């Protein structure tokens, strides 16, 4: 195993990112083989348990209420519905269910209690459970851990510098605070970002500096390519090339040798050959299912056919970390604290976000 380093500089990371491609691939594949089985890929199913109507203004997101997009919102799903979908995901080879809710932050109350019940239910299906619910407090992280949560996803999205050009309703610091709160429980951390949002290469490196400096580093790092959705502030941004994705995956693999690098949004725009190169460069996790929250994703059968062709095997659940024990709600020592945490709201103006908001007002 390689030892994780926490003091990478932006310059060092850029030097890796910009290496001649064959050299970069060789180095990344070597690190990958040293730390992981190169023929095993973890498969997660992403489930949108509460869609749309989000008060935040993330410039890439069709679920933000302030933009006019085609998203059909829905209230929090029933536990029985989630269980049915988890069983389907398990039957098609997924080892993890990741539940996403379009919330700014988690609020104690019946909805959070319902999510805790979903976590217990999926854990009992012997699947890894992940949640992405927005900002959470230490107490909420501990309650999720007790319910049997395996991972919490909270992406840094981009570098601290570029973050201000993407989101105005919360600060980069809030992201780090939530990750710190998760670390105070025994839940693993999933945190990565999106490339192709108009950021500079320095911002991609800056995001990796922030992720690598976390100690421990996240167990899972999703690398997303922007899927530009009509109505969002980023609707006109051209898709990035596959080479940028390959370079980003390879660089992430080199600087975070032990983490699972997750090839996330944007796979529908990638050829099988492109994805194969990403796997060679160190990606060892994907999201399965025809939707990634609200944006398209390859069909699970297509993915399984690709696995067969490439000789890849889906990773069994709890290979890396053992199955968390579930404490029933009735046995819990933890109480809802009803806190009103002071997450920040910088509120600066981002021109393209404002334009998209004004456009939505005219259409709606
Ligand atoms: S990314 Fe999450 S927090 Fe941001 S607008 Fe979308 S649902 Fe809300």
TrEMBL record:
Binding site for [4Fe-4S] cluster: 54, 58, 61
Manner of cofactor binding, per the entry note: Binds 1 [2Fe-2S] cluster. The cluster is coordinated with 3 cysteines and 1 arginine.
SUPFAM superfamilies associated with the record: Radical SAM enzymes
Cofactor field: [2Fe-2S] cluster; [4Fe-4S] cluster
Keyword Transferase belongs to the record: yes
Pathway(s) where this gene product acts: Cofactor biosynthesis; biotin biosynthesis; biotin from 7,8-diaminononanoate: step 2/2
Superkingdom: Bacteria
Disordered, as annotated region: 336-364
Record's catalysed reaction(s): (4R,5S)-dethiobiotin + (sulfur carrier)-SH + 2 reduced [2Fe-2S]-[ferredoxin] + 2 S-adenosyl-L-methionine = (sulfur carrier)-H + biotin + 2 5'-deoxyadenosine + 2 L-methionine + 2 oxidized [2Fe-2S]-[ferredoxin]
Gene3D superfamilies reported in the protein's UniProt record: Aldolase class I
Keyword 4Fe-4S: yes
Sequence ranges of Basic and acidic residues compositional bias: 348-364
GO molecular function (one): biotin synthase activity
EC code(s) of this entry: 2.8.1.6
Binding partners and assembly: Homodimer.
Role noted for this protein: Catalyzes the conversion of dethiobiotin (DTB) to biotin by the insertion of a sulfur atom into dethiobiotin via a radical-based mechanism.
Family: Belongs to the radical SAM superfamily. Biotin synthase family.
Protein name as annotated: Biotin synthase
